Amino acid sequence: MPRLLAAALTTVAASALAVGAALGVVALLNATPEQPNTPLVTYETASRER
Q1: Nearest Cα to 23, choosing from 35, 31, 11?
Q2: Contacts of 14 (CB under 8 A, 6+ apart)
Q3: Which three-class secondary structure state does DSSP give residue 35?
Q4: C-alpha angle with apex 14: 8 to 29, nearest 5 degrees?
Q5: DSSP string, 5-32
Q6: Dist. CA 1–CA 41, nearest whole Å
């Protein structure tokens, strides 16, 4: 009986750890990075003269 209890507790602990890791990954993926909204490449536009 102690082996069955140990196996059940290990299963519950592993499940809780897996759920916590999954929620942590989802939280990290939903986080928005703090970065300025500036373009990396800019192109100069020539003004047309008529």
Answers
A1: 31
A2: none
A3: coil
A4: 155
A5: HHHHHHHHHHHHHHHHHHHHHHHHHHPP
A6: 67
For residue 22, what are the CA distances in angstroms to 3, 30, 31, 45? Answer: 28, 12, 15, 48
Torsion (CA) 26, 27, 28, 29 in degrees, nearest 10: 50
- Is the pLDDT confidence value at 49 over 90? no
Q: What is the pLDDT of residue 32?
A: 76
Q: How far apart are CA 40 and CA 42, in angstroms?
A: 7
What are the pLDDT digits (tens) for 7-40? 999 999 999 999 999 999 999 888 777 777 788 8
pTM for the complete prediction? 0.57
Joined tokens for residue 16: 């809780």
